[in-house]
């Protein structure tokens, strides 16, 4: 996909990974529909950052937990840009066990509604526009919580509902790839422990986890570090620009966390 002149809808673009992706697409010549709702203290920084790119963009204040609001969003995107080529399905909410403590129903419902339900309705309502593009692309974001759950060194990070919702995203990615084919590619990036999303720049990492707990997570990661926004941006650009034959796939971007904790011994001498 040639990105110059395309139109992208980037969810959760107010800061962190969403903002990083949006800025990278802006520098590639993509026109941007950007959403925000929470983190109002970051609104000003968001506006300045995208204003400096010179890219054609509009910021939409929308609560994606409201299906009617999603419908209005897609209508406004069509009216404003006339088309949609790329959907960056970057919306989630995952409570940390070490931050929130014992589960209550509201926290479970919020994690499911944000991480899973909102993604589904955005995709469903945006699909006709993406199909009209003739060369559309969707990137869903999930977490390795869907693989490892509340276990190991990352047990302090991943609530059960968030983990279950992340596992569900992979099923939706495959279903949506079938629905979108052949004109819309749908892929998924499964994130590990990343800055601004479970690592540096989050309340839990900066103020709650002990140095020992953070070291255990890094030591369990084969590459020996947490992920960066730049790591995610590079993966997104690869999927959009350089992987035209990829759809229905999951790219696990976790520095080898899910493979950590187990060594590979030398081959035994055998008996023959």
TrEMBL record:
<dbReference type="GO" id="GO:0016491">
    <property type="term" value="F:oxidoreductase activity"/>
</dbReference>
<protein>
    <submittedName>
        <fullName>3-oxoacyl-[acyl-carrier protein] reductase</fullName>
    </submittedName>
</protein>
<keyword id="KW-0560">Oxidoreductase</keyword>
<comment type="similarity">
    <text>Belongs to the short-chain dehydrogenases/reductases (SDR) family.</text>
</comment>
<dbReference type="InterPro" id="IPR002347">
    <property type="entry name" value="SDR_fam"/>
</dbReference>
<dbReference type="Pfam" id="PF13561">
    <property type="entry name" value="adh_short_C2"/>
</dbReference>
<dbReference type="InterPro" id="IPR036291">
    <property type="entry name" value="NAD(P)-bd_dom_sf"/>
</dbReference>
């Amino acid at each position: 996909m040639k990105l110059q002149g395309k139109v992208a809808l980037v969810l959760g673009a107010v800061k962190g990974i969403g903002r990083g992706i949006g800025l990278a697409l802006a520098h590639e010549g993509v026109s941007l529909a950007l959403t925000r709702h929470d983190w109002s203290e970051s609104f000003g920084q968001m506006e300045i950052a995208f204003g400096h790119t010179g890219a054609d963009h509009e910021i939409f204040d929308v609560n994606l937990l409201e299906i009617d609001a999603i419908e209005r969003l897609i209508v406004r995107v069509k009216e404003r840009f006339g088309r949609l080529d790329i959907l960056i399905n970057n919306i989630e909410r995952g409570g940390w066990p070490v931050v929130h403590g014992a589960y209550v129903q509201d926290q479970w419902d919020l994690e499911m509604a944000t991480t899973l339900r909102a993604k589904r309705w955005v995709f469903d309502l945006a699909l006709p526009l993406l199909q009209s593009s003739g060369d559309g692309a969707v990137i869903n974001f999930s977490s390795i919580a869907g693989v490892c759950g509340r276990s190991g060194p990352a047990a302090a990070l991943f609530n059960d509902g968030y983990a279950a919702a992340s596992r569900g995203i992979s099923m939706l990615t495959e279903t949506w790839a079938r629905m979108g084919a052949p004109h819309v590619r749908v892929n998924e990036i499964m994130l590990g422990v990343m800055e601004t999303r479970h690592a540096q720049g989050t309340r839990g990492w900066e103020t709650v986890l002990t140095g020992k707990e953070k070291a255990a997570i890094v030591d369990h990661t084969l590459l020996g570090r947490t992920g960066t926004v730049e790591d995610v941006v590079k993966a997104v650009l690869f999927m959009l620009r350089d992987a035209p034959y990829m759809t229905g796939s999951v790219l696990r971007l976790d520095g080898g966390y899910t493979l950590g904790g187990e060594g590979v011994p030398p081959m035994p001498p055998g008996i023959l």
